[in-house]
Design brief:
41% of the residues lie in helices and 13% in strands. It starts with 5 loop residues before the first strand and ends with a helix. The strands form two sheets. It has a six-stranded parallel beta sheet, sandwiched between helices. Strand 4 (107-111), helix 6 and strand 5 form a beta-alpha-beta unit. It has helices spanning 19-32, 41-45, 51-60, 69-82, 94-103, 116-125, 149-158, 172-181, 214-220; strands at 6-9, 16-17, 89-90, 107-111, 134-136, 165-169, 184-188, 206-208. The longest helix is centred in the first third of the chain and has 14 residues, at 19-32. It is globular, with a radius of gyration of 17 Å. By secondary structure, the chain is of the alpha/beta class. It has two domains: 6-17 and 88-220, HAD superfamily/HAD-like (Rossmann fold, 3-Layer(aba) Sandwich); 19-82.
């Protein structure tokens, strides 16, 4: 008998590979300012899980105290909001995984620290909105991850218990939130990890290095 009846995913770096859109916009912004050096994709990719501020810091090598930082951030987010899924896709293996969850009538949803104005648009453009049983963004809770509040709220929406819910994430705060909620946690090693970061140190219940490993893992649990 299956030991879970619901699965929750983090968004950026777990369900959706959103780094290409941030790289595209950051490159455009640099070109507009005649910055000739090429922006390294892998370096920028590692910053995406930490939000727009981290993207600006990485792309322009400046700190939030820099006088132009807020204007750069506002421009990035304004342009991103127009087409947040122009280049983004779900990770390889997720089509099969989500189809299996739907076939097995296993509820699934998204709990993210990404603001709602981006999250809902991305899920809509990737044709996932109607399939999600719950979508929780920072605006829906008083405290974002690593607080378990969002995960517990998603369980309420889906009418499931945290003890029979899995949470998959690519950041240590995801695993911390999952543990605090009493869920089984899966660390996603294919996400936006820092260069010196290892999922082995997160104390998750399970871990995968590639998104294609998720389906056989869930089928085995």
């Amino acid at each position: 008998m299956r030991s879970f009846n619901a699965v929750l995913f983090d968004l950026d770096g777990t369900l959706v590979d959103s780094a290409p859109d941030f790289y595209h916009l950051a490159t455009q912004m640099r070109q507009a300012r005649n910055l000739s050096s090429r922006l390294d994709y892998d370096t920028l990719r590692r910053s995406v899980s930490n939000g727009g501020k981290a993207v600006i810091q990485t792309a322009f090598d400046i700190e939030p105290e820099h006088p132009e930082f807020n204007d750069l951030l506002a421009e990035l987010l304004s342009e991103y909001e127009k087409q947040p899924a122009l280049h983004s896709t779900i990770f390889e293996g997720f089509n099969e995984l989500l189809e299996w969850l739907d076939q097995e009538r296993i509820l699934w949803g998204v709990v993210t620290n990404k603001p709602a104005r981006f999250t809902h648009k991305i899920l809509h453009e990737l044709h996932l909105s109607q399939r999600c049983a719950s979508i929780i963004c920072p605006e829906d809770v008083t405290v974002s991850k690593p607080s378990p509040e969002g995960l517990l709220l998603a369980c309420q929406h889906m009418n499931v218990t945290p003890q029979t819910t899995l949470y998959v994430g690519d950041h240590i705060r995801d695993i911390q939130a999952g543990h605090a909620a009493g869920m089984t946690t899966i660390a996603a090693g294919f996400g936006y990890l820092a260069i010196d970061e290892s999922i082995d140190e997160w104390s998750s219940h399970f871990k995968v290095d590639h998104a294609t490993e998720l389906l056989p893992l869930l089928q085995s649990i």
